[in-house]
Amino acid sequence: MNLSPMRFKNYIWPHNPRVYEIGFARKMASQHVPFGRSVLSGLGMDHRVLRGEGEFVGEGAYREFQKLATVFYEESPGILVHPVWQTANAWFVELSVRQEPTEDYVRYGFTFWECYDGYRRGLAEVGGDPAEAGNKSGGQAVEAAAEYTVLPGDTLYRIARKTGVDLGRLAALNPQIRNLNLIYPGDKIRLG
C-alpha cells in the first residue's frame, strides 16, 4: 500500500517516518465517597499526541533535517497531514536527534500535539428567532432554540456574561441543572 507523504505547514517529508504512535487521553475527575470508593466523571477528551521516529538517509540527509528543524522553530501551530491520522491543526512540540548525525544519516524523533482552536472563534448562533424562521419541508415553520455547549473552565456565570443572557433566565431555561455551581464540559445549555 502506497501512503501519501506526511506534511506539516510547508514541509513535506521525503519519505514517511519509520515509526509513529498516536495517543488519546480523556480527562477524568474523581470524587471520593465513604468507605474508600470513588465516583468518576469524564471531563472530555484531552489533546491527541503523535510521536514518531524517522531517518534521513543519503546525500543531503543532514540538510533535510535542518529544513525540518527550521519548521520546528516557527512559533505557531499548523496543519499536519499524516498518512494514517486525520488532518489536524497541531503544534510541533518536540524534535530530537536520536544519535550523532552524519552528513548522510540522521535518525530523529518528533512529537506533535493536536490543538483545537474553536475556543477562539467564540459563539456561533445555532438557532434564530422562530418568528423569522423560513418555511421548510412542506411549509412548516422550523423552531430551533439556541444552545451553548459548555467548555472546560466554563461556569454558568461566565456563560451568562458571554452570551448576554441573564443568569436567572439561564437557570429558569435549564431546569436540568440542579446545582448552578456544577456544570460539565459538553453539557448543553439552552439560551432561549
Description:
By secondary structure, this protein is mostly beta strands. The chain is about 15% helix and about 35% strand. The protein contains 3 helices and 13 strands, in the order E-E-E-E-E-E-H-E-E-E-E-E-E-H-H-E. It has helices spanning about 60-70, 155-165, 165-175, and strands at about 5-10, 10, 20-25, 25-35, 35-45, 50-55, 80, 90-95, 105-115, 135, 140, 145-150, 190. It is elongated.
Return residue spans where pLDDT drops below 50 for at least 5 consecutive residues. Answer: 119-123, 128-144
- Rg estimate, integer Å: 24 Å
User: Care to count the β-strands?
Assistant: 13
Termini Cα gap: 52 Å
**Secondary-structure element string:** EEEEEEHEEEEEEHHE
Share of helix among residues?
10-25%
Q: Give the overall pLDDT as a whole number.
A: 80
Overall geometry comes to: elongated
Q: Sheet bearing the most strands, described?
A: 7 strands, antiparallel
Alpha plus pi helix count: 3
Structural class: mainly beta
Neighbour order of strands in the largest sheet: 2-1-7-8-9-6-3
Q: Strand-residue fraction?
A: 35-45%
Chain oligomer state? single chain
